[in-house]
Structure formats: structure tokens, C-alpha cells
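Researcher: We're teaching a course module on how sequence relates to structure. For the next exercise, students receive a sequence and then see the predicted structure as C-alpha cells, so they can try to spot secondary structure elements on their own. Here is the exercise chain.
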Amino acid sequence: MNYDLEMEKQIHSLKEKKTLLLHACCAPCSSAVLERISDYFDITILYYNPNITDEKEYQKRLNEIKTFIKKLHKDNIKILDGRYNPDEFFTMAKGLEQEKERGKRCYKCYELRLNETAKVAEKLNFDFFTTTLSISPYKNSKWLNEIGENLNLEYRPTYLYADFKKKNGYKRSIELSKEFGLYRQDYCGCIYSKKEREEIKQKEYA
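Model: And here is the predicted structure for the students to work with:
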């Protein structure tokens, strides 16, 4: 399925601006996503990322996204702090600690964060929910959208299909990061991805 095309169909079927709860992992990934869809939705960003297991890193990314939103000066974009409890991630990842990045552990991590997004979207009466994660070339858009589809059957808000890396979305996020001076991390967030990234760096400079 062309998820980007499906999103376009959903957007163009709207007769009025709807509310969207947008799960976001960081400011750079949010930048191009917000640029693309903020004209169609009143957006609240949900920053729920228990996978960021270093608390300083978590707060740094959270502060960065808050600063970025202020710089945008858009009244229809707000942010909602999700709870920070890395134990939720570690419980989910139990037995999957040795998985490589982009494997089963990542799928379960997507599921954890999207499930929370759908749950909060229903509780707060949002029309739609989705995530910025698909903008990264390192994230599996098929998995993300399949999870969203499944949650669509369980919760009332509508899942907004997305593959934000399409139409040069990832490239645009890099451009906007430079324009706004955004902090760009070099690993996803969990201790396992950080360890894998450090091993790669060591090999590169060996």
C-alpha cells in the first residue's frame, strides 16, 4: 500500500479542520511533518517516549521540541508531555535485548508508543492520531501503519496513514533542522540502540 497516497486521500476528504494527536519522538522528525500537515489539523504533539532510557537525553529532546514549537508561532500546534517511565520500555523489551535495531524489539516499541497515542487520543476526544516515526529511513513504515490499522479497530479516533519520508520528507527535516538549529541525535533512544551505534562508531574509527 502507498501510505503517503492514503494519507492524501484522508486529508482531501476532510470538509473542515480536524484535531490530531501526533506522537513525536524529537524536534527534527516533527519539523517536516508539522510543515506538511498543520494546515489541515489542529495538532497536539504527544511526547511519549519511554524508550529514551537516558533521562538527560529524554529531557533534552523534550525541551528541544518545546522550543521548536514556540519558534513556529502557530496557534494550532500544542504539546502534551507523556509520562516518563523507562520501566515500561524495559518490560516490553524483556527477552529481546539482543535483537538488532529494526528487529522485533523495534516493532514492539512502535506498538507501545502508538498504543499509548491511540489511548490518549480517545480519552481526550481527538479525531485522528498518528506518529512522526515514519519520516526516518530507519523506521519501518509498513509496520507502523499496520499497527495503526489494528489500533483503529480498538479505539474510536481514526488512524492517519503516513509515510512522511516520502516527497523528500526526511531531506526536508534535515533542512529545517539546520534552519532552526535543532539538536539531531545519532541514535533512536534506547540503551540498546545507543550501544549498537557506539559499536559502529568504534569500527569506523578503528
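Model: If you want an answer key for the exercise: The chain has eight helices and five strands. Residues 104-123 form the longest helix (20 residues).
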